[in-house]
Amino acid sequence: TQLLEQSPQFLSIQEGENLTVYCNSSSVFSSLQWYRQEPGEGPVLLVTVVTGGEVKKLKRLTFQFGDARKDSSLHITAAQPGDTGLYLCAVIQGAQKLVFGQGTRLTINP
Amino acid sequence: DAMVIQNPRYQVTQFGKPVTLSCSQTLNHNVMYWYQQKSSQAPKLLFHYYDKDFNNEADTPDNFQSRRPNTSFCFLDIRSPGLGDAAMYLCATSRVGTDTQYFGPGTRLTVL
């Protein structure tokens, strides 16, 4: 059983559309991170959310941490081809051990 | 620019032939990690070093070993690669007490 369940696993949309991807768990976390990984590269940290209900914005990306700190969402407005990549949510477990969800592979078609 | 460097970016080895992957960092971080990422899967932690203190994950096969001769360098040794070990291997670093890990670009390992 995965600690973090991400949905959808695959998403392909047209440039300019909006989208939301989800990261869910039955566990409560003190913080949650979102990473983006482009093909052939390592993951890059986008944001860390720490407070229940917290909303953080990064240009066209909006991240929300659930009130109960068990889930999170990532919303992209007016998606662009440069947003294509693997989006991973992750939590710190124990002594700095990062555990990832299985990821959402996003493709934005021009 | 401070960064995490992995060499080589692509490595081909034969079934059973030992291989070593390398990682270096200019961030002067005291924690270094090795992750394995198989196709269409999330990165999975193999082990990490806190300075010279080695921490192995319980489900990391004995076939995988690591060395950290100094702060800047860390090596992943695969003693007898099997076909199932073909994957992207990611190195990451962090400063102890912080939540941010910085990843290198990875080494894609092919086992023939």
Describe the structure.
- The complex is a heterodimer of chains A (110) and B (112).
- Chain A has no helices and eleven strands.
- Chain A has 110 residues and is mainly beta.
- In chain A, a hairpin with a 5-residue loop joins strand 7 (61-65) and strand 8 (71-76).
- Chain A is globular.
- The termini of chain A are far apart.
- Chain B is an all-beta fold and 112 residues long.
- Chain B contains no helices and eleven strands.
- In chain B, the strands form two sheets. In chain B, strands 2, 4, 5, 6, 9, 10 and 11 form a seven-stranded mixed beta sheet that branches.
- In chain B, strand 4 and strand 5 (44-50) form a beta hairpin.
- The model of chain B has no long low-confidence stretch (mean pLDDT 93).
- The A-B interface holds A 31, 33, 40-45, 48, 88, 92, 95-103, 105 and B 4, 31, 33, 40-45, 48, 50, 55, 57, 90-92, 94, 96, 99-106, 108.
Instruction: Estimate what percentage of residues of chain A fall within beta strands.
Output: over 45%
End-to-end gap of chain B: 36 Å
- Name the largest protein-protein interface in this structure: A-B, 21 and 27 residues
In terms of structural class, how would the helical and strand content of chain A be classed?
Answer: mainly beta
What percent of residues of chain A adopt helix (DSSP H or I)?
under 10%
* Large-scale geometry of chain B: globular
Features of the shown structure:
heterodimer; A: 110 residues; mainly beta; 6-stranded mixed sheet; 5-stranded antiparallel sheet; 11 strands; B: 112 residues; 7-stranded mixed sheet; 4-stranded antiparallel sheet; 52% strand; globular
Question: In terms of topology, how is this protein built?
Answer:
The complex is a heterodimer of chains A (110) and B (112).
Chain A: E1 5-7, E2 10-14, E3 19-24, E4 32-37, E5 44-49, E6 55-58, E7 61-65, E8 71-76, E9 85-93, E10 97-100, E11 104-109
Parallel strand pairs in A: 2-11
Antiparallel strand pairs in A: 1-3, 3-8, 4-5, 4-9, 6-7, 7-8, 9-10, 9-11
Chain B: E1 4-7, E2 10-13, E3 19-25, E4 31-37, E5 44-50, E6 53-56, E7 64-67, E8 73-78, E9 87-94, E10 102-103, E11 107-111
Parallel strand pairs in B: 2-11
Antiparallel strand pairs in B: 1-3, 3-8, 4-5, 4-9, 5-6, 7-8, 9-10, 9-11
